Fold these 3 entries.
Entry 1:
Amino acid sequence: MGVGVSGGGSLGLAFETVPGTYVAPTKFHPILSESLEFQPGNIYRRPIRQSIDNIGMVPGNVNVTGSVSAEALDDVVVYYMYAMRMGIVKTGTTPNWIYTATPTSLAAFPTRTLSLTVVRNSVVFGYVGCVVSKMTLAIQNDLLQMDVDIIAQNETTQSAPTPTWGSTTPIGPGNWNIGIPTATQVFDMDTFSYSIDEVAAPAYRLKNTGPNAGRGAQFVSMGERTVQMTASRDFMDRTDYNLFQAGTPQSITILGTANQSTNNSIQFLIGNSYKSAYQVVMGAQGDIVRANLTYDSTIDGSGNATQLVVHTQETIV
Amino acid sequence: MPYQMTINQENLAEGADVLIHGLGTFANGGTYDISDEEAEHFREAHAVDAGGVDSDPESENFGVYVPNVQPGPSLTEVSIYGVTVTESSTKAAAPSAGPVASTSEPGAPVDGGGDS
């Protein structure tokens, strides 16, 4: 093989029927970058035996970690939501579907696991048992961008897929409705970063089955969940700042539509957010006085720390 | 036409765009005739460089990277999710591929601009 270039690569995904068992991709989506990496966990031996060097290595437990960055497309985000601890309700009628995702607290496992197939320089990497440890939706390059931190149980060798590509439009300028609190649209925010962190970790068990001589994780578990948002707003008066000092919670809704289509959108809601930081900054003579905020969520009256609603034509099968 | 291609991706709506690199953009749910020329263009678009650094010390190219671009697999050799490609019986003989709609143009993938 010759020297490759990243633009020639691809990433595809599929839901797994059995967690950790590879399924060839059923959905490909454009990515901005990825860093999935096999972690070998080598165990180096240093017993006392008339040597002060490593005297050998025992192959250790393995997993795959890394992240995938992509434009947050409505037909793609849903797949990754399923790889978190989400209760997802699908409503609507063909072809326009609505996926309403609410975090669950029932298990340490995601709703579904994914197989991710990455082709780099025509070489295929098949990652199995992939879960989303953390999802971040943020404004980058004026578009809504999705960053997902992945932990996978193992890696397998697979044959090359042939991708197909859709024509979904990213969410960009002119397509935003920011509500703080939820029903009140504000016009002073230019950037935000919203994240759901499930704190996933590979869990190893004593076994002898599976790829890489059975050294992969038995499953990937998830821990305490944290929903957080940061944002930058123009600072114009003390109204919001007083709420920060008083520790008054607010609801936040951010809705982004693709081409202003009501049938293609990504919305997230934080029902009960507290401002943990409120920096009012004067950086330089010519700078606008801005407020940099950090919002931390607690559960709302419905018991939900957040909710995601995606309108799309994608049929999850 | 030598090949007939049917696209039926369950996750997509009927009529949704499906872009296949090197072949064009097609509507989900449709059946399309693919010419030899289009099929060859697909192979070229999926070409692989099997070259390498010349490791023969006797060679005048010793230490030099020598490209060796090979066409990719044919349409019937690849597996594409939700896409079925068959060699048409008309390849050998004569007429009619039946009620087939074709919207693809060789080497002219439709790109909506800003689309994925």
Entry 2:
Amino acid sequence: MKKPVNLFHTIKCLFVVAVVACSSLAFGQGKYFTREGNVRFFSDASMEKIEAKNNKVSAAIDAQTGKVEFAVLIKSFQFEKALMQEHFNENYMESDKYPKATFAGTITNLKDINFSRDGTYKANVSGKLTMHGVTRDVNTMGTIRVSKGMVNVSNTFKVKLADYNIEIPAVVKDKIAKEVEVTVDSNLKAM
Amino acid sequence: MKKILITLLVLGIVAAGAGYWYMNKPHEDVAGATPELAVNAQDLISAFETNEQEANGKYVGKLIEVRGKVAQIDDTEDGSTNILLESANPMSTVMCQLDPLQKQDKSGLAVGQPVNIKGLCSGYTTDVVLDRCHIIK
């Protein structure tokens, strides 16, 4: 007598679970990640232009919560000139002491971005940037481009070196800009 | 008087030459250098997972040799090649980027193959990262 009722209940539960599972997949609201993200910076000073690239940046985005995380290893920045790379690591960033720069924040206009629909979206990101032992609030606007299941994050923003206690000796002050331009251009894949 | 002037001139040229060489000195030679220490991939990752600060002091900035099994070979869009060495946790690898400055032959590499790689350790994010890597033997 009891058996048919229980069976129907079980089937109903399974059905609900299946629908929920399918809709999560259909909405593509998952996590995106890369360990080969690109970040470069550019210093435009009166006497010299300096450029460095890092193509081993770790980045993650949670499409559900809007959380964004970046981790950049300072020693992985590549410069054309060895001496410049040495000064950058030893004198300015002190990378032996502070090997990593990190950003942890959130996309504040998450509802404007549809991760399961190909397109280009403006993203307002707010969070904390930690570099050279200093943490500061950062608010910036970047672009999120969704294309065939891949998410490209791009953003250009300025960093004032003094804000992060990065000292430029007077001797080279015309060779390094007080504010450097940082460009993020990373492709993240669904996890 | 002439001798002094000539001496000063020669010294000046030598100093300028040395200065120029210093400003444009080459990047560290990795291909011909001997690693300071050797470790296997799993132990290296575990060291950073357990105590990142201690592992930073021990490995970061040093030329190290890592032994491991190839989990993945990534040829990225900017022309670089990353060899990922596996660990017990699939999300955590030792990522070795082949040296873009001193090119080498990587045709023999395959997934699943054990390999010895030397490179400069730059730290830990989700993976332990090695720059300017060279495959040993």
Entry 3:
Amino acid sequence: MKDVAVLGVGMYRFGMWDVPNAVMAREAGMAALRDANLSFRDVQAAYVGHIFAPVMSAVRVMKEFGLTGLPVQHVENASATGSAAFREACLQVASGEYDVVMVLGFDKMTTMIQQSAQSTSAEYMEDAILPAAFFALWATRRMHERGMKAEHLARIAAKNWNNGALNPMAQRQPRERTTVERVLQSRMVAWPLTTMMCCPMGDGAACAIVGRADLAKKLNPGRPVVKVVASALQTEKYAPGHLFIGPVVGPAQMTIDTSRQVYEEAGLGPEDLDLVQVHDAFAIEELEYYELLGLCRPGEAEKCIEEGDFELGGRVPVSTDGGLIARGHPGGPTGLAQIWETTLQLRGEAGKRQVEGARVGLCHMMGGGSVCVIHILQRD
Amino acid sequence: MSEIRKTRIPVKPGYFTVPEDPNEPPKLLGSRCNRCGEAYFPRRAICARAECLSEDLVDITLGPEGTLYSYTFVHMPLFGSSNLEHMDGYGVGQIDLPEGPRVQLPLAGKREDFFIGQRLLAELDKMREEGNNEVVIVRFRPIEVKG
């Protein structure tokens, strides 16, 4: 990725809100413009992601900022929607087509749930099974192959809940410290995953302004410049044992392949990362991604969890903002919340959850299990 | 017995057989590539292997036996089902079929009944009634006990 920087970021806190998409999106977008020290007049194009809103919602929502005639493009890639929109915007800047592009994600997952609750029939066979089941199947297999215990998953979840407590934009901000015991005692969803090991339903919005790296210095003199040094998006490659039918499918190998691509593009390796955000919709995912992203060797995730490697203050903190489990996962904006967090961390503006001296951060998202998007951000 | 047997119809056509004989296990509907031999579930028109991509595929049936690769038990009702058996939850497994494909489908039984490597047999499971029809989904039942 050539000379592309994150010029500004903004969020509307994730949660269960009685607030329209347009309002959440406007507030997140205006926050990002203020952070970038730009006016909407300066935005040359917008890439907008949502999963659950009706047709043309992006164009309608963008009118909130003013009718400047700019090109608006909808992007949808399930959970990886915001990340995929971010990638498109970065590619546009890298290509020289535009200097300043807005990436906006918003969603009201609560509306989607109400709609699907009204329908009683499973139109597709795969709709019958709960998405959590797919990742519970990963967990059972991991227990069988590596001797993982439910306690390891609970420790990841507790870490993320406690990180969420330090993030003012997190959906879950528990006042009391979350313990492993509390996570294990919460309601069972799909054995061995308890409700506190799973991400919540929610609403929210997030925005990033990306642009030419030289603009970042001019717009905000003295502030560290956060560059997007690598971007990759992959879908599934067929291998024997591939699952085609299920609410979520997709091979773990996709994260290995996509991460290799970004490491090569950035000229960096997993040992260079100071912090990492992953698609931790379920705690078992985060555990697997430690190994798939190369943060530890295969088979060592349990040991590293026990040693606190991925906690704030650990070797390489993961899900520093609470992750999908605590920061929340409304859909469209989720990947952009990762960019928000990583940008603040690399600027040294992450407050109580600041990773000391952070220079390189990786953001990983999965969409429907079948799309993997990874970005590496680096402080210049 | 005066009860009229309802006609069993699949929750979605094209994925599994519904045999006339209620004692006969269903089979899954798949495809095999005539060029490279790879077998798939569900049916497809083009071989998925990047090295092949042949359009010469034939319909085959898969199962009804399988081996459990992984399992869980979901503590929520099976979506689209009004069968009382599904109200407290349902098992889900990834099942390796002898012809090659791995499938993800509901399991009959409780979590304690399942183990990795277990032999299973396909069966039809009632989800709900619609007029004179009984809507069924395919699932797998352990035919081997633990220990």
